Amino acid sequence: MAKANYINEIEEVPQISPADRILLKDAADCFSFRANGYYLSLIDWDDPEDPLRRIVIPDPAELDEWGELDASCEHRFTVAPGLEHKYPDTALLLTTNVCGGVCRFCFRKRLFMCENRETTLDYAPALDYIRGHKEINNVLLSGGDPLMLSTGRLTRLLGALREIEHVRIIRIGSKLPAYYPFRLSEDGELLEVLARFSKPHRRIYLMTHFNHANEITEHAVRAVEMVLKAGVIICNQTPLIRGVNDDPDTLVELFEKLSFIGVAPYYLFQVRPTVGNRPYVVPIEEGIEIVELTGGRCSGLANRIRYIMSHARGKIEMVGMTEEEVFFRFHRAADPADRGHFLVYPRNPEAYWLDDYGEPSQELDPLEVLNAN
């Protein structure tokens, strides 16, 4: 497998003029910068609005004062070094603080900052916790990007999880199929490992992060093909990103191309109000309009996404709105008392996060409504 040509300094990007490098340096230094030659080659450098450029090249507006470092309060759910347990059946393990590229809209950019200790190379305490909690039937490997781990280290981690009988699903969240697909298409050992640990009743899921159809190159399609042949199920999740995919035509093209290559569109996320993310976030109600305009324009296989906000209270789906009200539903709830609840708020076109709406005008338990009728 060819070694990726990783670039960690904005000054090393040859396609950016010296004057622009000076303008971008502060944002790159503050929130880190990382890319590679393959991904940079996909950018149309004659187009200042190129969507892939926007994904990986800093924007000076990232330095605007806005947001929080841990916008979803992940620290509240940390139960062991690198391990979060927010929902009863799911555990999330931060396997590394390294990615194939640094997405400018990353909600965990705190992991790339100095003296961050949320990730760990010692997975033993996390594995002990998972062994002791039989309600956990699926584990999400995240980070950072788990596929940046060496094949040997990833093999040992997957093997340890497969020895835990109650862990039925292992999910691997990775943007490498977009950033550097050769990690999957050319590493036969890695593909063999995935095939070994993805079994008919205990599947591995690869959660890809294709944000724009321009990332679905022939190299990426080849990587997807090899992973599917290894018996791994692939789903895709992407944020709704200002200047990248914030229009119906772009989303329809992305969802269709994913479905054509055997990748199921899964979640469309609201960009979290994380420090540095102001230039990339779309207001919630504009997002609902965009999602509504994608409906019915592609097959059901391509149109399976849920528009989701990963809030401290849980995964909250943006359901729809009227001229006066906007509606949310708990897709997953951190507090069991919130399961399935509907939240109704007066419209606020400037809202980017649930907290921007204040108190709901109504909070409905669907079971209570059914019983009342």
Give a quick rundown of the structure.
This protein is of the alpha/beta class and 373 residues long. 28% of the residues lie in helices and 21% in strands.
Mean pLDDT: 94
Unreliable sequence segments: none
The count of strands amounts to 15
Helical residue percent band = 25-40%
Strand content: 15-25%
CATH C-level of the largest domain: Alpha Beta
* CATH architecture level-2 label of the largest domain: Alpha-Beta Barrel
Number of helices: 12
Described by strand count, sense and barrel closure, the largest sheet is: 13 strands, mixed
Q: What structural category arises from helix and sheet content?
A: alpha/beta
Order of helices and strands: EHEHHEEEHEHEHHHEHEHEHEEEEEH
Q: Shape, please?
A: globular
CATH superfamily of the largest domain: Aldolase class I
The fold-level CATH name of the largest domain is TIM Barrel
Number of domains: 3
Distance between the termini: 63 Å
Radius of gyration: 20 Å
Q: Largest sheet, order of strands side by side?
A: 3-4-5-6-7-8-9-10-11-12-13-14-15
Characterization of the model:
28% of the residues lie in helices and 21% in strands. It is built from twelve helices and 15 strands. The mean pLDDT is 94. It has helices spanning 18-31, 37-41, 51-56, 124-131, 151-162, 176-179, 182-185, 188-197, 218-229, 248-260, 284-294, 366-372; strands at residues 6-7, 35-36, 78-80, 83-87, 90-94, 138-142, 169-174, 204-208, 233-240, 264-270, 306-311, 314-321, 325-333, 342-346, 362-364. With 373 residues, the protein is of the alpha/beta class. The protein folds into three domains: 6-62, no CATH class; 63-280, TIM Barrel (Alpha-Beta Barrel); 282-373, no CATH class. A hairpin with a 2-residue loop joins strand 3 and strand 4 (83-87). Helix 5 runs parallel beside helix 8.
